[in-house]
């Protein structure tokens, strides 16, 4: 044992070495030793022993990772296999170990506790042992014991952490877990008495208390917060009043005028205050039944905190966070039933003494503007104020929280005059389409209080620019307008127009002197974009365009002005505002890209360019060739060989170029348009393609030329989705073999195929263009026979003569992996299977590539099918048809793969084929190509089964029945095709008219009715159903849209095969086995013979 302990200690020391080889060797030995039963005990002994600090940290870290690996693999379906002896030793160690090691070992404890206690309720000794440890720890029992109070409370904190969220989201109203009730009864309830004593001791000291006591207070607050954040244990509820008053005593002891050091115990007191406010928020928002009686005291306590907002510029981050939470608690209360009654008497005081002082400009803002303008923009010109409400938990700064509270106040209207008992929770709901209804009964505070207060502050003009207070106050006014967006959106357009004309636009006349105010004005105008009439939007747009080009002539920098202007213009465009001419805006954007040293501004301009392209569409398409040619150069300069991932400016630039590629392709002239239009567009397409190719060379080929051989195996994978869009534009621009050679298309495709072959960052929004490129590559190979497409040439010396992966093989690896991913990727990948197997021209020399593709595709598709087999999802059809394409190429090989994939795999697949061939299956075989493929597959399958001597099996009869039914449907579909095509246009016109009428009806209905707001019960039920669907593996409707389900099948060479001849040959050859008696449905036979009377002689038994 001692030798093993010494060896492990030595190996742990080796893992701290600077020698990578030594670290790797030591880790490999440790991994082998980790399989022995005593290994965790050795690690625990080392981490709590007398070794050096690095060795103890290494032992604890390895133990943490080992435990997670072993416990997490069980995934909560069974208790962990950790022994009782180890748990006891771990708990003893946690109570005594030093803090640096404790922070790591407590994660070991948490993994085991979640698996055994939380999920399986299988650690009965845990709560009694922890209760005893806390009661007998040194600060609580008052004697110098070996058990540390802070350590014991940190263990309790780790145990309670999982209970901060609902454990079973599938239950709409989940009861308190019995484990949490047990912890509450045995530990938390007695602990609150101790907490009260410590609070009294801290209050009596009239100064700074011991650091350990402050840590105890903070940790108990954290434990209580986790216990009540979602649930309310029965034993805690009666103690809430006394506990909350203790929290109020802590908050009352805080000072907001002292400098706090990170090592100062007073910082811990501030953290305890922060946690106290979070507890108040949890009680107000989650446990109204228990908190209503406490709200008056909570409000009074919090009002005494937010009044210090006038000192915001001098406060530390933690102190300001407390102010922010104070405003949030008031917002929470105001959204509840008794909120109006409690808060409305303080509205005026709140506005004048707390909210507005937090909004006005201060010294900290000026410093931040100059030293960190991006942080200034994030804090003060936020793009994330999507909704003003009392439930926000992500505001963090006093100003943002004050803005949010001001918005909540402005929307509040108090109880209706005739039913004063109605709560504010009903009266303050925002209803669309009810502008100024019942205004005589209930006028909002925005109209009665907030706007009159803001109107008192004069707008800055040339005559008063020297008065700093006027500028600072008006900055606060603009911030306040930002909080009134919901209120202003409910007003008549003339009201908003007047406000903008009189209180915001005049600032632009003295713009150069007021960059701070102008940035805020830009932001407010952008946020108001959705409620501005068109004529007002035009005036606003012209001012924003002026602000977008505001130069840095002197200090301070105008960078935030330009950034906020870009954001505001984007918002206007998103709200369907169309400038009379996009060209001036595009000229400004292109002219300024690449002019900033830090690249941040160019990054913003690329975002704006994307928005302009998406909004302008065909109106801006004519400018795209010139814009692309102008900005490819600067983007190429930002690309460096060793930079991965690429800088943000490059990512946004490529995203903008991708949008331009889509927009340009969408502007392709209709067939009916003049030849001149087609020629002009084709010239532009070639220019766009050449520019994109040059950028792709820089991104993909230049690094391969500059890096060493080892690095060349890993081409850059940044922005693969958008770069794929650029590549698609290049492929669409090809007009002959000379362009393929000139633009190095084969080389680009080789790198691209290598990137996607190793693609693992699957996201629905990032993979779709790759599938489009695959189709274009196959089409291009049909025309020009691409180099290295099916088989790649041997690399030249001195490289070893081993063939590298071809373009098609790289694509095949991607498709095989895509089949296993999210539903829409599976659907698209299955569509590509048919293209890759049947469209390229394979020779005898390249047949091996086709065979390996078919093997990989069928293996992946059958594996995925087995996963969804029990769900009857819309993935059945594409997966089964993908296997069918593989089967037609190599039936024997695919049969072997299916049998390896599952016992009776070929039978499972055949049965599923018959199932989806049935008319009743949804979504069934609707397209002619699908029916054709299925008929060919069923015929081949029947023939294979007969050759294997299975002619007597019911499996063959099921397949033959499905084949006959499909033959009838295919023939009927073919005969009706011309008639359907003739009537499509008229039907589409009628449908468009109906849709338009329907839209108008919907609009009228919406304008007359209130927006429905679901109740809490409906909300919980909806989310419970969604959670259950996720757990059961149900697919999102959004992921399985109809468009995806009906992707067109491209069968390539199979299109030349006559499936009716295959049917004739099958029946003629095997009719004596297939039609041996009246076992086929008589109605089916009758339908079949009506369509194919030539087969009557084979069906004599059915006459």
UniProtKB/TrEMBL annotation:
Coiled coil: none annotated. Keywords: Nucleus, Transport. Residues 414-442, 971-1018 are annotated as: Disordered. GO terms for cellular component: nucleus. Pfam families: IBN_N. Residues 977-1018 have a biased composition (Acidic residues). The keyword Nucleus applies. It is found in: Nucleus. This is Importin N-terminal domain-containing protein. It comes from Flemingia macrophylla.
């Amino acid at each position: 044992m001692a030798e093993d302990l010494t060896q492990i200690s030595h190996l742990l020391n080796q893992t701290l070495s600077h020698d990578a080889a030594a670290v790797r060797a030591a880790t490999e030995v440790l991994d082998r030793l980790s399989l022995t039963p005593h290994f965790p005990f050795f690690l625990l002994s080392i981490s709590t022993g007398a070794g050096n600090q690095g060795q103890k940290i290494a032992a604890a870290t390895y133990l943490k990772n080992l435990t997670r690996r072993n416990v997490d693999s069980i995934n909560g379906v069974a208790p962990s296999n950790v022994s009782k002896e180890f748990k006891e030793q771990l708990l003893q160690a946690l109570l005594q170990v030093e803090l640096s090691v404790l922070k790591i070992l407590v994660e070991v404890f948490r993994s085991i506790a979640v698996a055994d206690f939380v999920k399986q309720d299988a650690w009965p000794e845990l709560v009694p042992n922890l209760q005893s440890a806390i009661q007998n720890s040194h600060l609580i029992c008052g004697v110098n014991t070996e058990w540390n109070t802070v350590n014991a409370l940190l263990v309790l904190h780790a145990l309670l952490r999982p209970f901060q969220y609902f454990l079973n989201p599938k239950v709409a109203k989940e009861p308190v877990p019995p484990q949490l009730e047990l912890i509450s009864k045995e530990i938390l309830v007695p602990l609150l008495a101790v907490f009260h004593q410590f609070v009294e001791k801290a209050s009596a000291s009239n100064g700074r208390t011991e650091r350990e006591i402050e840590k105890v207070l903070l940790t108990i607050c954290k434990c209580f917060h986790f216990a009540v954040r979602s649930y309310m244990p029965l034993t805690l509820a009666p103690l809430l009043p006394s506990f909350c008053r203790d929290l109020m005593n802590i908050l009352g002891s805080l000072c907001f005028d002292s400098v706090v050091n990170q090592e100062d115990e007073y910082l811990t007191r501030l953290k305890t205050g922060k946690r106290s406010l979070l507890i108040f928020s949890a009680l107000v928002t989650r446990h109204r039944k228990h908190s209503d009686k406490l709200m008056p005291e909570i409000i009074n306590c919090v009002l005494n905190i937010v009044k210090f907002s006038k000192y915001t510029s001098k406060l530390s981050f933690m102190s300001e966070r407390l102010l922010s939470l104070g405003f949030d608690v008031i917002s929470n209360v105001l959204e509840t039933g008794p909120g109006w009654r409690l808060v409305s008497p303080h509205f005026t005081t709140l506005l004048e003494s707390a909210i507005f002082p937090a909004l006005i400009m201060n010294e900290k803002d000026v410093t931040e503007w100059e030293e960190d303008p991006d942080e200034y923009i994030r804090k003060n010109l936020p793009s994330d104020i999507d909704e003003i409400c009392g439930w926000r938990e992500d505001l963090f700064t006093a100003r943002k929280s004050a803005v949010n509270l001001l918005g909540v106040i402005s929307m509040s209207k108090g109880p209706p005059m005739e039913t004063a008992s109605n709560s504010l929770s009903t009266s303050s709901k925002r209803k669309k389409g009810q502008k100024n209804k019942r205004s005589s009964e209930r006028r909002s505070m925005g109209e009665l209080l907030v706007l009159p207060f803001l109107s008192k502050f004069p707008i800055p003009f040339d005559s008063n620019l020297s008065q700093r207070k006027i500028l600072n106050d008006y900055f606060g006014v603009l911030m306040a307008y930002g909080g009134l967006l919901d209120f202003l959106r409910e007003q008549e357009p003339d009201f908003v127009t007047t406000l903008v004309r009189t209180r915001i636009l005049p600032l632009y006349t003295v713009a150069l002197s007021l960059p701070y105010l102008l940035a805020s004005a830009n932001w407010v105008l952008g946020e108001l974009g959705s409620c501005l009439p068109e004529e007002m939007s035009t005036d606003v747009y012209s001012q924003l365009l002026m602000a977008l080009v505001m130069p840095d002539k002197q200090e301070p920098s105008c960078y935030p002005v330009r950034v906020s202007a870009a954001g505001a213009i984007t918002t206007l465009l998103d709200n369907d505002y169309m400038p009379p001419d996009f060209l001036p805006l595009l000229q400004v954007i292109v002219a300024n890209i690449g002019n900033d040293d830090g690249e941040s501004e160019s990054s913003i301009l690329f975002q704006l360019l994307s928005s302009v392209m998406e909004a302008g569409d065909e109106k801006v398409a004519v400018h795209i060739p010139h814009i692309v040619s102008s900005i490819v150069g600067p983007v190429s300069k930002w690309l460096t060989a060793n930079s991965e991932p690429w800088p943000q400016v490059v990512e946004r630039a490529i995203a903008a170029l991708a949008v331009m590629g889509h927009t340009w392709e969408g502007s392709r002239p209709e067939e009916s348009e003049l030849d001149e239009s087609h020629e002009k567009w084709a010239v532009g397409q070639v220019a766009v393609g050449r520019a994109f190719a040059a950028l792709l060379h820089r991104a993909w080929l230049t690094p391969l030329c500059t890096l060493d051989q080892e690095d060349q195996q890993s081409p850059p994978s940044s922005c693969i989705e958008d770069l794929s869009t650029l590549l698609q534009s290049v492929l669409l621009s090809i007009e002959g073999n000379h362009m393929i050679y000139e633009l190095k298309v084969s080389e680009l495709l080789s790198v691209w195929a290598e990137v996607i072959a190793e693609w693992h960052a699957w996201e629905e929004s990032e993979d779709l263009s790759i599938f489009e490129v695959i189709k274009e590559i196959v089409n291009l190979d049909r025309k020009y026979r691409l180099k290295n497409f099916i088989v790649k040439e041997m690399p030249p010396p001195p490289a070893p003569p081993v063939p590298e992966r071809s373009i098609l093989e790289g694509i095949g690896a991607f498709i095989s992996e895509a089949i296993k991913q999210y539903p829409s990727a599976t659907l698209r990948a299955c569509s590509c299977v048919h293209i890759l197997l049947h469209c390229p021209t394979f020779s005898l020399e390249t047949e091996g590539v086709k065979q390996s593709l078919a093997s990989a595709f069928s293996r992946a598709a059958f594996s995925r099918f087995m996963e969804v087999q029990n769900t009857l999802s819309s993935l059945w059809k594409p997966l089964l048809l993908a296997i069918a394409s593989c089967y037609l190429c190599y039936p024997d090989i695919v049969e072997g793969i299916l049998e390896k994939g599952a016992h009776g795999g070929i039978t499972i697949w055949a049965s599923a084929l018959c199932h989806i061939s049935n008319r009743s299956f949804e979504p069934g075989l609707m397209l002619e190509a699908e029916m054709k493929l299925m008929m060919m597959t069923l015929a081949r399958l029947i023939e294979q089964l007969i050759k294997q001597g299975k002619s007597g099996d019911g499996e063959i009869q099921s397949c033959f029945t499905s084949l006959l039914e499909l033959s009838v449907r295919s023939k009927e579909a073919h005969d009706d095709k011309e008639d359907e095509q003739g009537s499509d246009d008229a039907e589409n016109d009628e449908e468009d008219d109906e849709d338009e009428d329907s839209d108008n009806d919907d609009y009228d209905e919406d304008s007359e009715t209130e927006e429905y707001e679901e109740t809490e019960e409906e909300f919980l039920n909806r989310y419970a159903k969604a959670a259950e669907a996720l757990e059961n593996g149900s697919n999102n409707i959004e992921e399985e849209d109809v468009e995806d389900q009906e992707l067109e099948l491209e069968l390539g060479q199979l299109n030349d095969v006559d499936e009716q001849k295959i049917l004739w040959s099958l029946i003629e050859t095997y009719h004596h086995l297939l039609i041996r008696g009246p076992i086929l449905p008589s109605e089916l036979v009758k339908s079949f013979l009506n369509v194919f009377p030539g087969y009557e002689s084979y069906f004599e038994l059915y006459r």
